[in-house]
Amino acid sequence: MTARKNTRIALIGYGNIAHSLLKGLLAADYEADSIRVSDSAAAKLKDLKQETKGIRTFASNLQAIEDATSAILCVKPDVVQAVCAEIKDTLMRQSTVLVSVAAGVSVDLLERWTAQTLPIVRCMPNTPVAVGCGMIALYANPCVTAEHKKLAEDIFSTVGSTVWLEDEKDMHIVTALSGSGPAYFFRFTEAFEKAAKDLACPPHLARELAMQTLYGAGKLALQSRSDIATLREQITSKGGTTERGLQVLEQADIDKIARSVLKAASLRSVEITQQLEDT
Ligand SMILES: NC(=O)c1ccc[n+]([C@@H]2O[C@H](COP(=O)([O-])OP(=O)(O)OC[C@H]3O[C@@H](n4cnc5c(N)ncnc54)[C@H](OP(=O)(O)O)[C@@H]3O)[C@@H](O)[C@H]2O)c1
User: Fold this and answer.
1) pLDDT of residue 3
2) Distance in angstroms (rounded) separating the CA atoms of residues 122 and 184
3) Which residues contact 209 (CB under 8 A, 6 or more apart)?
4) Which of 21, 169, 173, 181 stands 20 to 30 A from 52 (CA)?
């Protein structure tokens, strides 16, 4: 609690991920006045200020990071360099920990755009942080102390499960699987909802069946001691409906599809790093 009391977080760029993170932090009882938000779009800040009592919003990134213990960069990868140039001197002066959630932006690039002596945490959250169920991978540069790690851990463990990576290269597969992953499960759920409607299921029923099954299967898988294959086998009776349905997934080579999905997304993460390094 003491750590939280002294924590002042600046969220830079208020888009999808910052919105999810803020929602999760507030739900976990972070005080609104310990969080500052900046964005280039004034309208977004106005809405946020109206919705969230006590939150401090700024059109200037520099003002938002004033006095912050951590600055969380939530802008698109191609904007990170410009924002770093803008805030690096203040971060250095205040010894503020820089946390970047930008996909593909390596610690090496962040150090190049700020300073090699700045504590930097590269982080990959996902949008379920909004409901306290995020998956957050973190990687620290050598300037990050145990105290800095605790600061980052205190923030992110309140909105999900955290893991510290030893090898930054693993961030590509993290980005592809847990960073982008909610979209794959949403897409799968959308497909089942649509298919049920096509098979004459009433729309509201199709939606509820698909959504609750996604939620229930996830929760069961997480809470169960059994591995996921065992959980699947427990519902798959010989000659039953599940077996027949699963046969279709196997015929479509679901393993190959999953491999291709992760390969494509992680290659894109490598590509973003490469493109930024070449500029
Ligand atoms: N979305 C996810 O699920 C997810 C998950 C993990 C990591 N990430 C990473 O999070 C970052 C943000 O993604 P997002 O989906 O949240 O993007 P987004 O919705 O586009 O949010 C970025 C926000 O930053 C604002 N912005 C642009 N330039 C700025 C500047 N110079 N100073 C302050 N704010 C500025 C943008 O305003 P305008 O719209 O007016 O440009 C926008 O509101 C990306 O680097 C992404 O790789 C996203």
Assistant:
1) 56
2) 23
3) 193, 196, 201
4) 181
Q: Is the CB of 41 under 6 A from ligand 1?
A: yes
| Ligand 1 and 127: CB distance under 6 A | yes
- Residue that finishes a domain, picked among 145, 174, 203: 174
Q: Are residues 13 and 90 in the same domain?
A: yes
State which of 11, 16, 86 you would mutate to test the pocket of ligand 1, scoring each by most atoms of that ligand within 8 A of its C-beta: 16
Q: State the closest ligand 1 atom to the C-alpha of 83, by its place in the atom list counted from 1.
A: 31
Ligand 1 pocket check for 40: Cβ under 6 Å: yes
CATH of the domain at 256: 1.10.3730.10
Does residue 39 have its Cβ closer than 6 Å to ligand 1?
Answer: yes
| H or E segment and range at residue 38 | strand 35-38
Query: Would you state the structure tokens that stand for residue 90, as one six-digit string?
Result: 């203040």
pLDDT mean values, one per 10 residues, the chain (279 residues) = 75 96 93 95 93 94 96 97 96 95 96 94 96 97 95 94 97 98 98 98 98 97 95 97 98 98 97 91
Q: Same domain, yes or no, for 168 and 203?
A: no
Amino acid identity at 167: D
